[in-house]
TrEMBL record:
InterPro entries on file: AGP_Transferase, Aminoglycoside_PTrfase, Kinase-like_dom_sf
UniProt-recorded name of the protein: Aminoglycoside phosphotransferase
Domain Aminoglycoside phosphotransferase: 24-204
Domain of life: Bacteria
Coiled coil: none
Species of the source: Kitasatospora albolonga
Length: 248
């Protein structure tokens, strides 16, 4: 009999694995609807939907392995990272989905959220003021006009599966929608800057690396407090706080 593995669990949602089936439990049905819709529209491999009985979505496991995780060693060849870049480009070039996604927040809204997060990080004693101030300045470059693209919205490397040098699928589409393409590229390379060149080789085109670096700072500043409050450790080696320190 297969064991039940808790992949991730926090007050917003939980994902369980039983053999080759993943069970996603999400109390927010609008978010689950958005995930199903995005998978149906995405021009890249996604998990097969086995069944859906709200609040549970059952998905088939993808073949292959991930390229790594934040805070852990990166795996895969340069060609595999480039293949991931090519898959991300294919997604970004696809027709726009009907909904805005997590990567589609306005610069005004992001700036307000960022300022609040920075103030709280210092007031609550999570991070020193100098580290926060420096990264807030770096993050400013991400707050600029952008052309909407079909974005994943949570494209961390643990969500991209490869077999050899080929991408076999991308998971976790609940934040997908219209948004800033460079947000996806930054999320994918967060904590693994050494593979940015490989990813951009596959992605192609003229990409502003300073904006990607700005998103690393912005995403990390916004994430630290949420991670602490939900039982995760952004201070672990190679994770969000180390990303912020690397900007110093």
């Amino acid at each position: 009999m297969d064991e039940v593995e808790v992949v991730v669990a926090h007050p917003e949602r939980a994902t369980l694995r039983v053999g080759d089936v993943f069970l996603k439990v999400d109390a927010d049905q609008a978010r689950a609807d958005a995930e199903v819709e995005a998978m149906s529209l995405a021009p890249v491999p996604t998990p097969e939907i086995l069944w859906r009985e709200p609040p549970v979505l059952a998905l088939a496991a993808l073949p292959g392995t991930t390229l790594g995780r934040l805070g852990g060693p990166s795996t895969g060849s340069a060609a595999a990272w480039a293949s991931a870049g090519a898959a991300i480009r294919k997604l970004h070039d696809a027709p726009l989905p009907p909904r805005p996604g997590r990567a589609g927040r306005s610069s005004v809204a992001l700036a307000a959220e960022l300022d609040g997060a920075c103030a709280a990080l210092v007031t609550d004693g999570h991070l020193p003021a100098g580290l926060v101030t420096r990264n807030r300045r770096v993050a400013e470059a991400a707050l600029r006009p952008w052309t909407p693209a079909f974005t994943h919205g949570d494209l961390q490397i643990a969500h991209v599966f490869v077999d050899g040098d080929e991408v076999t699928g991308i998971i976790d589409w609940s934040e997908a929608g219209r948004g800033d393409a460079l947000y996806d590229l930054a999320a994918f390379t967060l904590g693994h800057e050494e593979h940015l060149d490989d990813v951009l080789t596959g992605y192609g085109g003229d990409v502003d690396r300073e904006v990607i670096r700005a998103w690393w700072s912005l995403r990390s500043l916004l994430a630290v407090r949420w991670l602490i409050e939900h039982g995760f450790d952004p201070f672990a080696p190679g994770c969000e706080v180390d990303v912020l320190r690397s900007r110093m």
